[in-house]
Amino acid sequence: MSESTLSTVVETEPPPRLRAFAPFEWMVAFRYVRTRRANGFVSVIAGFSFLGIMLGVATLIVVMSVMNGFHRELMDKIVGIDGHAFVQAAERPLNDWAEVTARLQRLPGVKLVAPMVEGAAGVSSPYGQSGALVRGIREQDILRLPGLAGNVKDGTFQGFNSAGGVAIGQRLAESLGVRVGDNISILIAKGASTPFGVAPRIKAYPVTAIFQIGMSEYDRVFVYMPFAESQLFFNHENEATVIEVFLDAPDAVDKFRADIDANIDRPMMLTDWRQRNKTFFDTLQVESNVMFIILTLIVLVAALNIISGLTMLVKDKSSDIAVLRTMGATRGAVLRIFLIIGASIGVVGDIAGFLLGLTLAKNLDAIRLLLNKLMHANLFPAELYFLSRLPSIVEPREVALVVVMTLALAILASIYPAWKAASLDPIDALRHE
Question: CA 127 from chain center: how many Å?
Fold first, then answer.
């Protein structure tokens, strides 16, 4: 075919222009995506792009859900046991704890105020020994403590004040080899004063309750003792060492500080859960952000595969594109055909990854237990991760961000090859046929 004849064909009056994304454009796009012997390699690249996007989206959803689960679980466990604000004595002992407790309880937004006596101790039984943090607490407070209420595995907190015993965590009970009704010995270095100095104090207590908070570190360390008994045992008669405050809204600590300054004139030191756990939760947030960036690279690589696949498809279909142009297809139509191809790979991979990610995130702990059984291994040791199960919380906003970001990357990756196809000169393309 001569160049003059091609020019005549190209300059003929085109038919009426089709509307954007007409059925014709969709039909051509899906014909190009199908596997054929001539462009089988291109279809393989498209398949790998689809798999990359699917796995990238699924991985992002699962990992972000696990990070959210860790953050929520650890916050609930830590704050549920340690409280939201901590009032300690300044200048003089906290021997007016009853009055301070009553004033704090009347402040707005306060859910629970628990005066305590805290001290480090050694605990032992005939079968083992361990370090512990002993907390003296009133019965009415331990029954309402968010981290302990409903988590008693054996025994009871009822009659805690008069039972004369202690409550210990499940892992501590296992390491000591004791059950409810058995005795454990509690030892402190600073006991009674004697003419020869301060002598250690050791006393045996029956175990009246065994609890399981769900955070292995706490289940292995905490021992709860009746408040009055702890005052005598730790030489803090008529005193409290700390008053823990639980708020209706943990983020309302700043308002609580202002309320204390306005209503309580006693010298005090006030700290909150953010200060005590700032490094811990900041580290979790940094890890979450870094994991998001790293795993986004998986999706980005899949998007680059779309570019290479479409570029090869444009080269393979250059003669077809030239024929379409000579038959009246506009540059915009050709551009939209290849945009549809790239976007289709992105949409299908996005939806498949979304469904796979949600399925895995919702059943993650069950999958872990199944893998542990099949592999005879422990893939999530509680001793290392502080939690007794693998948490997963799906945040709709984060999932929406992942889905939209992936779709945007797929469309952006399709623009350059689509533009190259639309810019193809039909005369040059047909000249080499």
Answer: 38
> Residue 236 carries which side chain, given as an amino acid letter?
H
Q: Using alpha carbons, select from 425, 331, 421, 420 the residue that is nearest to residue 3.
A: 425
> Residue 383, SS3?
helix
Distances in whole angstroms, Cα of residue 358 to Cα of each of 50, 54, 224: 18, 12, 40
Q: What is the 3-state secondary structure (H, E, C) of 43-79?
A: HHHHHHHHHHHHHHHHHHHHHHHHHHHHHHHHHHHHH
Amino acid sitting at position 62: V
Last residue of a domain, one of 266, 299, 322: 266
* 274, part of any domain: no
pLDDT in tens, 399-430: 898 888 888 888 888 888 888 777 776 666 55
Residue 80 lies in a domain: no
Residue 121 CB burial class (10 angstroms; 0-12, 13-18, ≥19)? buried
- Are the C-beta atoms of residues 180 and 239 closer than 8 Å to each other? no
């004369």: which residue's tokens? 164
- From 142, 160, 136, 302, select the one nearest 232 (Cα to Cα): 136
Counting other chains too, the contacts that 195-204 makes at CB distance below 8 Å and 24 or more residues apart are: 201/233, 203/233
Radius of gyration of the chain (CA): 34
Q: Which domain holds residue 112?
A: 92-266
pLDDT of residue 11: 47
Predicted model pTM = 0.64
Backbone angles phi, psi at 249, to 5 degrees: -125, 115
Three-state secondary structure string covering 159-184: CHHHHCCEEEEHHHHHHHCCCCCCEE
Tokens 């995506």 sit at which residue?
Answer: 33
Confirm whether 166 is domain-assigned. Answer: yes
Q: Which H helix or E strand runs over 223?
A: strand 222-226
Tokens of 174: 């296992």
Torsion angle in degrees (nearest 10) through CA of 250, 256, 257, 261: -170
**Structural contact between residues 111 and 93, judged by C-beta atoms closer than 8 angstroms:** no
- The tally of domains found in the chain comes to 2
pLDDT tens per residue, range 160-196: 988 889 999 999 999 999 999 999 999 988 866 666 6
State whether 63 and 145 are in the same domain: no
